[in-house]
Amino acid sequence: MTWAQAIIVYAVCWWLLLFMALPFGVRRQDNVADGADPAAPEKTHLAIKCAIVTVLAALATWAIDFVISSGIVAVK
Question: What are 26-70's pLDDT values in tens digits?
């Protein structure tokens, strides 16, 4: 896998994993101020989710590269 392909695979994995991780640990607000959306989350923990997703996307990219380079899946 070339560097350009690896970057594309990493970006796709990162976004997919981020969208899967976004709903975890989200709680609605108990006391909603006037004019605020009642469905807005209290704390999103977005920094922690992005850090975890970054590591998982790197591992997923490595696994995809391993499967392709080992010949398990032929990609032409």
Answer: 888 777 778 778 788 888 899 999 999 999 999 999 999 999 999
Strand partners, 28: 41
Q: How many CB atoms lie within 10 A of CB 21?
A: 17
47, burial (CB in 10 Å: exposed 0-12, middle 13-18, buried 19+): exposed
d(CA 15, CA 25): 18
Q: Tell me the residue ranges of DSSP E strands in the chain.
A: none
pLDDT at 76 over 80: no
Cα–Cα nearest to 21, from 53, 51, 43: 53
pTM as predicted: 0.82
3-state secondary structure of 72: coil
Q: Which two tokens stand for residue 53?
A: 């997703």
- State the amino acid at position 42 in one-letter form: E
